[in-house]
Amino acid sequence: MPDTASESTAAWFSRAARELGPHSARHGEWAAAIADDPEVLAVIERLPPGERHPSLVFAVADLLGAPAREYAGLREWMLTHAETLAVAARGRRTQTNEVGRTAPLAAALARIEGPVVLLELGAAAGLCLALDRWTIRFERDGGEAGGADARDGAHAAPVAEAVSELGAGDPLVRCAVSGPGALPTRLPRILARRGVDLAPLDSADPADARWLEALTPVDRPDRRARLRAALVAVRSHPIEVVEGDAAQLIADPTRLRELSPAVPAGAELVIVSLGTLVYLRREVRAGFLDAVRSIGARSITLEGAAALPEVAERLAGREAAHPLGSVLALDGEPLARTSPHGDQLRWIG
Questions:
Q1: What's the order of all strands across the beta sheet hosting 190-197?
Q2: How far apart are CA 75 and CA 98, in angstroms?
Q3: Which residues on adjacent β-strands are paired with residue 177?
Q4: Which domain of life does the protein's organism represent (predicted)?
Q5: Is the peptide bond before 22 cis (omega within 30 degrees of 0)?
Q6: For the chain, what is the HEC assignment?
Q7: How far apart are alpha carbons 326 and 337 in whole angstroms?
Q8: Which residues lie across from 298 on neighbouring strands?
Q9: Quick one: pLDDT at residue 320?
Q10: Which of 27, 117, 312, 327 has the fewest CB within 10 Å, making it most exposed?
Q11: What local confidence, expressed as pLDDT, does residue 230 receive?
Q12: What is the pLDDT of residue 197?
């Protein structure tokens, strides 16, 4: 969403060019070009404000078969198919199920003794809740030995201090770790898991799977392949995702507790948000941690540095400005800076 109600569509796409470019050169290029293209901006401004999100526009265009290379081809398609784009975008939301975020999630869960019950807000198809069904490899920056097939014995095993692997199977999620902290070496036992989303997706539904793929940049075939592998991993035992509004649940924590799976004696309920809270109004976000505490639960958040006021306050003065803009926090305590898609993690001292 725009930073303020007064931010123009052009400014939004200009900002998106800077934010998307490091993770998708094509989306960064397209966003920058659209920011300076009044005709295409006019097409996008036919959409309701919530449907003008640059990543959403690109995903809907991909879903409809728009050219995926030079901007000139995309531009011509958008001008020709303006009405089709508007119809297809109606009611859509950014629901990127970025499997790479399971690495920071695992790093935070490693701090909890367990067992745990997980409830994720904004879960889409719930793929990130299946983190124990594939391999998460943490690699100390500069200390990785061998390649992605090191699990198969094709390379010499790396030293323990340089690499840690959790789980087994595909996909392989890799995360480069730096800073003053050890590599995660364990996961607590996950007794139950459930997702909540405004528009739940079904990992077994081909149309929902295609939408999730469209939300992943077309010039990142590595991420698309990882997404497809994760869909395969959860298809036989899908993650339950129920309909719910995160803002309403924060306002009514008893409902938050009711939507969670049953929590056996000795287990802890952990409420997870991986890039969801940033879409809520600031005053709603500000109440999230208190809402979680009020039901005796714990929280793991992976959000922008300013998304949660309490986290931002605890972070202030503890480190210099850092290019990794997302913050991983456990119960409101900042643990690490991460990249938005979880492939880099730097422990906070």
A1: 163-166, 135-140, 172-178, 344-347, 333-338, 326-330, 298-304, 268-274, 116-121, 190-197, 241-243
A2: 27
A3: 140, 345
A4: Bacteria
A5: no
A6: CCCCCCCCHHHHHHHHHHHHCCCCHHHHHHHHHHHCCHHHHHHHCCCCHHHCCHHHHHHHHHHCCCCCCCHHHHHHHHHHCHHHHHHHHCCCCCCCCCHHHHHHHHHHHCCCCCCEEEEEECCCCCHHHHHHHCEEEEEECCCCCCCCCHHHCCCCCCCCCCEEEECCCCCEEEEEEECCCCCCCCCCCEEEEEEEECCCCCCCCHHHHHHHHHCCCCCCHHHHHHHHHHHHHHHCCCCCEEECCHHHHHHCHHHHHHHCCCCCCCCEEEEEEECCHHHCCHHHHHCHHHHHHHCCCEEEEEEECCCCHHHHHHHCCCCCCCCCCEEEEECCEEEEEECCCCCEEEECC
A7: 6
A8: 270
A9: 59
A10: 312
A11: 97
A12: 96
